[in-house]
Amino acid sequence: MTRKILVLPGDGIGPEITAEASRILAACQAHGLDIEIEEGLVGGSAYDEHGEPLPAVTLDKAKAADAILLGAVGGPKWDKLEDLSKRPEKGLLGLRKNLGLFANLRPAITYPQLASASSLKPELVAGLDIMIVRELTGGIYFGQPRGIEVRDGQRVGFNTYVYSESEIERIGRVAFELAQKRGKRLCSVDKANVLEVTILWREVMERLAPEYPDVELSHMYVDNAAMQLVRAPKQFDVMVTGNMFGDILSDAAAMLTGSIGMLPSASLNESGQGMYEPCHGSAPDIAGKGIANPLATILSVAMMLRYSLGEPEFASRIEAAVGKVLDDGLRTADIASEGTRTVSTCEMGDAVLAAF
Amino acid sequence: MTRKILVLPGDGIGPEITAEASRILAACQAHGLDIEIEEGLVGGSAYDEHGEPLPAVTLDKAKAADAILLGAVGGPKWDKLEDLSKRPEKGLLGLRKNLGLFANLRPAITYPQLASASSLKPELVAGLDIMIVRELTGGIYFGQPRGIEVRDGQRVGFNTYVYSESEIERIGRVAFELAQKRGKRLCSVDKANVLEVTILWREVMERLAPEYPDVELSHMYVDNAAMQLVRAPKQFDVMVTGNMFGDILSDAAAMLTGSIGMLPSASLNESGQGMYEPCHGSAPDIAGKGIANPLATILSVAMMLRYSLGEPEFASRIEAAVGKVLDDGLRTADIASEGTRTVSTCEMGDAVLAAF
Ligand SMILES: CC(C)[C@H](C(=O)O)[C@@H](O)C(=O)O
Ligand SMILES: CC(C)[C@H](C(=O)O)[C@@H](O)C(=O)O
Q1: What number does the ligand 1 atom closest to the CA of A88 have?
Q2: Is the whole-model pTM more than 0.70?
Q3: Of A100, B92, B152, B332, which alpha carbon lies 20 to 30 A from B106's?
Q4: What share of chain A has pLDDT > 90, as a percent?
């Protein structure tokens, strides 16, 4: 059965990095993987073409796809759009919401070849391997009511941070199951000393715990979690948290590895359909220069093969190829260091293909 | 005119560290500072005694004081209290709200003597000096509606992230004015690509900017700010943000310095009345052992002398005394390193007094 892959390059460096990842997909195809690849527009580039960051045609293609590969969205060009609903980010948020991609898996891994690129002392990050599970279709990102309105003669902005028990339970189960397959430790991050919504979050996590007796559940306040990630990141195995805290903590964790240009992510729904994208953003400052690191996007293809397409062998081959080019000393500018060879986006893609 | 100082030791290590800070206050008194020192209960210790984390008697004393010195609140003993309004943290939040302490100043400074204590590479943090200005009486901490209720047959938790223009303007002015006195760069942190409340935040900051032409205003999304703090913290001078983001970012920033046991904070209202407290928490795990670091609390006294009591000379004398004990190689356990002498809480207090 032919599986459908939708590639959404997006904005900024998105087209450059997804181009390299698409070459890897094509290589898998040539080696017998039965897939069909389509492209679509999302984000600012979709807005420029269709006046919408998530045109109906893209959403239809996305719904029909088995998996989606996304580059990145956003850029200063669209930051001034008065109407928030037209911003590039709304394309991404719309895909997440419409496809029900509630489980965002964000690994923070230090590649042994890149440990010295971290701003942390090498011994604190060597061997780091955290999985952050972020709830992606709820919380303050989507809560109602929201807006800006006049109250008592002045404007007031407001958003609603809301979670139901079933939303919390659903993401909690994903996190517990991942912890079972890994180091068996799950840290749930909340602000239960201040926010009622996270008191419920903590309660539900506690209620689930007995069903996963092999997993050790702990709780941490978000401010402390931000500190502990900086102080001693290796204390964590799996972390689970809501949409907003997850956005902040997963980016901080990714940056600590020193390899943010290397980190893929997966966003899954209940039927295993997934969207895969690099952890980094659209980096408009370097767009079009051919120097962006395509490895996070290439590794996102590996995650796609593993989580949505059930092709772990192809996934491992891609990961091994990436490991080989790093061993060979090839680096894009963002991860370059003394004694390594700096290559372009395209040369990096060539090298991974050659090692595949 | 005799100024009134209220000391609120709180919970955990609070009593130990405020005891040392009170000795410094007493030393200032002996050197001619005209103050009157009172004590009061807040947090878990107040709950144990009065059934309330912020008893009326404490609030009355606080209102009558020119400045408050707080240790820290909270601990596992009270974490199970079903009624959130009785939790120790509510004592702290109640003081902030009732006294209108909207401006929280959290310096993140690397002490030259302690640069090696940071988990970041020394060159990234040497000389670091960031001031984080956190709005403290609004945002999601206090927004209504809030709670946990049954909707469509299941429980739902919700909180409201809300700011009015005047609240944003008030904290914005504090931040711009601080930037004017420092490096003249202000970075406002928001999530304006997703949250309406922070679109208004960004707009108000932009509107204020022309009134402070010598200050360069920039904006950063909170996820990026968390990354940039890890990657290259010295890029920042003053940062301004809301209550929740400020909680997370100021703790991360404090931890990066490696000197969180050294960092004071000030919370000010419109009339200059202030509450001063260390950035770190109540550390219940080491409470009562006599090993906590009292320097953040002692430096909070210095901040109090400078910001609320108009006594910059006394403030400088305290800061110089702290510098001297660090130069002499004295360290509490949290900041100890090879070649330094580890001392107890009380010995550290003795040393600062001797150097005063
Ligand atoms: C672009 C933005 C809306 C998005 C988010 O906040 O979720 C991004 O930061 C991410 O983490 O994927
Ligand atoms: C104790 C807690 C309520 C408090 C907060 O979240 O504001 C603390 O973390 C702080 O930053 O002062």
Answers
A1: 1
A2: yes
A3: B332
A4: 94
